[in-house]
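Weekly modeling sync, notes
Attendees: AB, CL, MP (scribe)

Item 1: holo prediction request
CL wants a bound-state model with zinc ion before deciding which constructs to order. AB pointed out that an apo prediction alone won't tell us much about the pocket. Agreed to run with the ligand included and paste results into these notes for async review.

Input as submitted:
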Amino acid sequence: MIDLDLEADLAAGFPAALEELKRFCRIPSVSTDPAYRSGIADAAAWVAARLRQAGFPQVETIATGGHPLVLAEWHATPGAPTILVYGHYDVQPPDPIANWTSPPFDPVVRADRLYARGVSDDKGPLLIPILVAEAMSRRRGRLPVNLVVLIEGEEESGSPHFEPAVAALKPRLACDLAVSADGAMWRPDLPSVTVASRGLVALDVVLTGAAKDLHSGRHGGSAPNPLQALVRLLATLHDHEGRVAVPGFHDGVRPPDPAILAAIRQADFDPAAYYAGIGAVPPVPMPDGDALLVRQWLEPTLEFNGIAGGYAGPGTKTVIPATAQAKITCRLVAGQVPAAVLDAVRRHLAAHAPSGFRLEMPGHGSGTPAFALDPGLPGLAATEAVLAEVLGQAPLRVAMGATVPIGGVLERQLGVPTVFFSFSTSDEDYHAPNEFFRLENFRRGLVAWARLLDRLVDLPRKREP
Ligand SMILES: [Zn+2]
């Protein structure tokens, strides 16, 4: 159903909506830096007030042990599906401030883009569904679906209190589908929906030889050198093409959604431009673009994030270090179990560790599994249909190499899938100076959210767990 009167209201209200977004962006809600504490409080209060003004009968700011959550509930349509809308009011630090063309918390429109810290991630995208709910209730006196809006304030600092807060609020967050207003389209020239993202596990490898650092003249050749042993040990973890060579590492990996493979073929990923973009010397021969994107989106990795030991300062130091260590993180794909991956890596390292050294492999938490939507999910089909209508082109199903915890948290705690429906684009410099939001996408996002909420009336209801 397309409600042209509603869409006319949204268009007429756009200048006011833009002024509101500017006001929201003037609040410096940097979550990671305690110096911005009052900005966080002000942003949470602003969101709560805006939800009340939109007509949400129940709005609450909820303490979490960190920055507060804002929870709004509007259960006015008995029998209709309940949709949980997710977003975050916190932003990345603005540094380096000198690189901004206009001040980060003084929003300015240039060339149909609004420039400000947080405007694309996630203040613009999260304001859209609130404005749409308000417009719907004004014109129709009701919403097509029940809405639960959950806006957090710690996304940019790793959401440390999000999962326990969701667990505590479970009954109030019960819903049939979660729709995230956070996330971003992959490229400005290609409409896309994110249907998968990789998980993460981390561990350290520490090899110890002698009880203390030794003189390499007096002991060289006879004493164990843990740096040498560590380099040999780490080299057993990959094959010659850089794929992980650990038995059991790939256990359970599920084949990717064929739609993602089709999107990769359609995306025309240019390997030369990719290497130039990251400033790296391209390998010889140049890899195939599709294969490179498959590696980036759909294959698990094991990366060395740091290797340390001995002396690495200026000049020389003739030392045999007592210990050497490496920091490792693995990106996981759908089907891999984080604990099983950690076990497999530890077993492999223990089996290949040279004698004469003490091996320790401390982990860092239990890890995060990959996120992958069921390709046949009705909520996904609804978002794709709306995007095709509004953007004039069927969206590609894309995966993301990075780790997005929210989908996993809502799946674990509430048993619902999360579809991503954000109108920011990943080139909008949202963790860098000069962050911007395309106003064209702000306008399209209002229409798209209106059509999505209307379409979700027909969403099959989830059975209570
Ligand atoms: Zn975000």
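Recorded for review: The radius of gyration is 25 Å.
Action items: CL to compare against the apo run; MP to circulate these notes.
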